[in-house]
């Protein structure tokens, strides 16, 4: 019988953690699959299967190393909630001391802390994964009215020495975002996604039998193509360095119907379950850049910024602003998410493709999330709760600490500008500029007020007119309002009418 139970959550599969450095017969590592964690959002079936398979593989690895492991599979009991299953296991084991890695979600942390009231001795340790800490973030922005990712990013660059030459950034500039916005050239041949192959039939069948509220599809459980081990994740990343890194800088914002992965690394699931280490990944990218002349700086900096900059920044925002952040709704948006967000059945080609791709692969890259689905949700006035639920469920890499900060802050501007200095909205012109979605679409991307005009166009201008009291003084939106004010009264009224029609018929677009 063990004196201590250490819980390992599905997003804490860190093989380098100091917990696992020594075998101790007095310690049991508990892994728990449960309906409560699989049901608080309608998760993509690939996400649930991927997490459970990764947990089972990691638990088996610990056992092979001599550690004591308790594993609760999804069908092992009728108990639903994580803490109830852990409580029962502890009582059966006559264990009163529970140890946890610090969870990344506020909800989970509160649930685990409640075990103290049940008579358990509990304690938390670091997950030993992130490059920065919530304390470092708080100290950086203490007394500030808003958060600027660039400030935090530069601080971490200096502290880690990544892409630095002495006290200066490599290449003389901190940020090459302006060089990350090219559209794919015509007849550009994209590489096929390099994917692993794992047989997840057993896990998949158990998930279906558990009747979890899953969405999306898993077409071939015999060949699951998301990494479920650190080795698979590193194989994907090393292949990406060799075949895709060179073009990532130019085309990271590009969109196309012809390829679901483009030049993106697809390691976010492995990172967010902690199978691989973010600092190591950044250092490997930097080393590859220095050792290969074909890798441009805008690729190296652009990739590292996503991990060292944006990922660490969003985690800091989460722990600084939660739980109040989850209730922010700056524009008081109240609309329901259109039903086609769950099946992709809309005549808008950009949305249909992005949503169907998400349902097929549990994945869309950051511009599809921000400037297609997120853009539409904001322009259409969808309640942030609805948007949160969708994003949290549909993407394999979505965990609340990184999802809600991107959704409420970056995508929906629901926080009123703590994260983004302006709402990230755009008309159809952006879709046409960055991809091929407008080709052969049912809607005309060039017009605003006709019956077949792209809904993005009237919604864009309607959004700014509708929220002028909240946005009119934003220093980054002066040109938008000047352009709108120059329109004649007939054009403005036609835009209002078209936007009103669109908003009243969201489900049939």
Write a concise synopsis of the structure shown.
The chain is built from 21 helices and seven strands. The protein has 509 residues and is mainly alpha-helical.
Q: Could you walk me through the main structural features you see in this protein, from its secondary elements to its overall organization?
A:
The protein is mainly α and 509 residues long. The chain has three domains: 4-125, Rossmann fold; 134-191 and 244-321, Alpha Horseshoe (Serine Threonine Protein Phosphatase 5, Tetratricopeptide repeat), CATH 1.25.40; 339-508, DNA Cyclobutane Dipyrimidine Photolyase, subunit A, domain 3 (Orthogonal Bundle), CATH 1.10.579. The protein has 21 helices and seven strands. Helix 6 packs across helix 12 (297-321), helix 11 (278-291) packs antiparallel against helix 12 (297-321) and helix 15 (384-394) crosses helix 16.
Backbone CA Rg = 24 Å
CATH architecture of the largest domain: Orthogonal Bundle
Beta-strand portion reads 5-15%
**Discrete helix count:** 21
Helix content: 40-55%
Question: For the record, what is the CATH homologous superfamily label of the largest domain?
Answer: DNA Cyclobutane Dipyrimidine Photolyase, subunit A, domain 3
For this entry, give a set of tags:
single chain, 509 residues, mainly alpha, Rossmann fold, Serine Threonine Protein Phosphatase 5, Tetratricopeptide repeat, DNA Cyclobutane Dipyrimidine Photolyase, subunit A, domain 3, five-stranded parallel sheet, two-stranded antiparallel sheet, 7 strands
């Amino acid at each position: 019988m063990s004196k201590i139970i250490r819980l390992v959550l599905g997003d804490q599969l860190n093989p380098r953690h100091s917990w696992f450095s020594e075998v101790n017969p007095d310690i049991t590592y508990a892994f728990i699959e449960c309906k409560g964690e699989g049901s608080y959002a309608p998760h993509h079936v690939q996400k649930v299967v991927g997490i459970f398979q990764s947990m089972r593989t990691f638990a088996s690895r610990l056992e092979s190393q001599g550690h004591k492991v308790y594993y609760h599979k999804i069908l092992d009991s009728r108990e639903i909630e994580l803490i109830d299953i852990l409580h029962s296991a502890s009582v059966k084991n006559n264990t009163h001391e529970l140890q946890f890695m610090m969870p990344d979600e506020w909800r989970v942390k509160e649930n685990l802390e409640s075990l103290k009231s049940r008579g358990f001795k509990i304690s938390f340790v670091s997950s030993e994964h992130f490059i920065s800490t919530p304390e470092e973030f708080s100290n950086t922005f203490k007394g500030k009215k808003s958060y600027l990712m660039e400030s935090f990013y530069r601080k971490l660059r200096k502290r880690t020495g990544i892409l630095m030459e002495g006290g200066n950034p490599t290449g003389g500039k901190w940020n090459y975002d302006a060089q990350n916005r090219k559209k794919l050239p015509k007849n550009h041949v994209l590489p096929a996604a390099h994917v692993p192959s794992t047989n997840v039939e057993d896990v998949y069948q158990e998930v279906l039998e558990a009747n979890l509220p899953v969405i999306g599809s898993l077409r071939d459980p015999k060949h699951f193509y998301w990494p479920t081990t650190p080795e698979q994740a590193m194989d994907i990343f090393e292949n990406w360095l060799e075949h895709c890194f060179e073009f990532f800088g130019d085309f990271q914002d590009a969109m196309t119907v012809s390829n679901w992965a483009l030049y993106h690394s697809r390691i976010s699931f492995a990172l967010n379950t902690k199978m691989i280490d973010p600092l190591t990944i950044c250092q490997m990218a930097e080393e590859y850049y220095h050792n290969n002349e074909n890798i441009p700086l805008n690729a190296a900096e652009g990739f590292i910024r996503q991990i060292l900059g944006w990922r660490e920044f969003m985690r800091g925002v989460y722990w600084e602003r939660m739980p109040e952040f989850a209730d922010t709704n700056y524009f008081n948006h109240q609309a329901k998410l259109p039903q086609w967000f769950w099946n992709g059945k809309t005549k808008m080609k950009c949305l249909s493709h992005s949503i169907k791709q998400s349902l097929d692969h549990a994945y869309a890259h950051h511009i599809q999330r921000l400037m297609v689905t997120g853009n539409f949700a904001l322009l259409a006035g969808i309640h942030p709760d609805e948007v949160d639920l969708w994003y949290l469920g549909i993407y394999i890499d979505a965990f609340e600490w990184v999802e809600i900060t991107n959704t409420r802050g970056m995508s929906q501007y629901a926080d009123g500008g703590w994260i983004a200095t302006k709402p990230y909205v755009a008309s159809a012109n952006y879709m046409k500029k960055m991809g091929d979605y407008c080709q052969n679409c049912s809607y005309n991307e060039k017009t605003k007020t006709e019956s077949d005009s792209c809904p993005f166009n009237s919604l864009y201008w309607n959004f700014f007119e509708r929220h002028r009291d909240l946005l009119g003084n934003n220093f980054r939106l002066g040109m938008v309002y000047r352009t709108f004010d120059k329109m004649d009264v007939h054009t403005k009224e036609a835009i209002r009418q078209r936007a009103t029609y669109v908003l009243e018929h969201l489900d049939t677009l």
